[in-house]
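Q: What does the assembly look like in three dimensions?
Context provided by user:
Components: two
Sequences:
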Amino acid sequence: MNRLIEKATMMFCWMSIGLLLGAGILILGYLLVKGLGAVNLKLIFGGTIPLDALLFKKPVFDGLFPAILGTLALVVLSVSLAVPIGISTGIYLAEYAGPYTKKIFNLFFDILAGIPSIVIGLFGFSLALFLHKHYSKNVQPCLLISGLALAFLVLPYIIRTTQVTLESLPSFVRVTGLALGATKLQNILFVLLPKSFSGIISGVILAIGRCAEDTAVIMLTGVVAMAGIPKSLLAKYEALPFYIYYISSQYKDTQELMTGYGASIILLLLCLLLFSIAFVLKRQLTYLALYRA
Amino acid sequence: MEERIKVKIRNLFFSYKGRDVLKGINADFKENSITAVIGPSGVGKSTLLMTMNRLWESIPDARMKGSVEIRFNGSFHDICSPSYPLPQLRRQVGMVFQVPNPLPMSIYKNVAFPLKLAGRKDKEQTRQDVEKALRQAYLWEEVKDRINNDAFSLSIGQQQRLCIARALVLEPEILLLDEPTSSLDQKAATMIEELLLEIKERYTIIVVSHYLDQVKRIADNVIELSGCGDGVINHGNGVKHKPVLEH
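A: Here is the predicted structure of the complete assembly.
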């Protein structure tokens, strides 16, 4: 009987993995089959000569180039806002906070993690309105507001991964530095954090993915269908996920729908690029922190 | 040679999560010699070591009562007093653990790490100190050509000697070792025993050991923790000194 249960459990686990793998391959395959034909330089740069567009000499009107740049800018902005704050908060919670404070903050960040993105978008929109009314008429939904709102959205991921990684370091690692005369801060900076880089980076990757794909937040905080390359932090911008959403709900012919598939592939590639950068960064940081002579 | 007391422990009580580990320990540790702490498992041998560099303070739910005094620069200091700076104490009292715990960095950086923590800037002086510590730990000849390799490329015995070198690089006055050979094979263990005998003239060495033959080979003094309520060797203070045969 016991053996039967064991076998059934194993079977179930394998089936789950198979299902997941199958679904992943199906989605990717479908996307590639449908959209690969649409991916070409014309999709990205439209009628403009690619080199001119890359050097910002000529604007791109009917291509995805501005949307790609918009998404990139958005990801870089919100992640660079969220990472320092998130990591510091994670360190505080794991190393300094008392048990009572920790309980309260944990609850608070769990709630924050559970807030639907559309609500955060709404909050960003209200912030823009507030600033517009009380601070300057120039402020309206824009790249900066979107970046702030998205940073808020991904903050819990970064806080939680930092905290969990630090807390799960075994006690013999914790005392190594201390026994050698490290102060608490030195121990965190020189031993505990370098040991936690991989965990923290996985949180950052999660955050990058979330910033790149989120549509609800940016829809309310400044993304538009046509804006060209983002000119400043206070300007409207285009973004890939919004373009995909827009095309799939407004397309006039198959040709246009195809560009939506093409944009999806480009968004995936962009994420892949950002993830690789994060991985390289992780190795470089670990090397710099631990191995540099 | 006159034997001088280096560490004086008086009326030491220790509890962990409400469970008493040490009850009223009194013990003296002599300078420039090896003192072995023996006793059955769970009797608080490692805890006793951790009261001497206050490492126990990083353990949650631990409580300590009593006094631990160490003679630095000719006079006894109460190291348990909150005003005694922790980093300084841990530079004066080095510690080596049961399982070798090199940090994930190069051999050189591992040994130089405590110097970096202490704020040492002088590169040449650091290089000299690292070499000296590695020589003391009998490791220099084996690693001098690959000093910038990952510390984990070393064998487990070499890693433990690396940890000893790292503990020695700040020239502490006391060296605490918590079962330093129990994760090593016989050959590596012998090497560490020889090394301890070699350096004991310069340090006060306190070693927790499970192996009675090892204790016989290296220890000048033995302190036996008997466990609470064990009436046989418990002389009211839980500690018994007994001289060991000359080796």
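Follow-up: The domain at 5-243 of chain B is CATH 3.40.50.300 (Rossmann fold).
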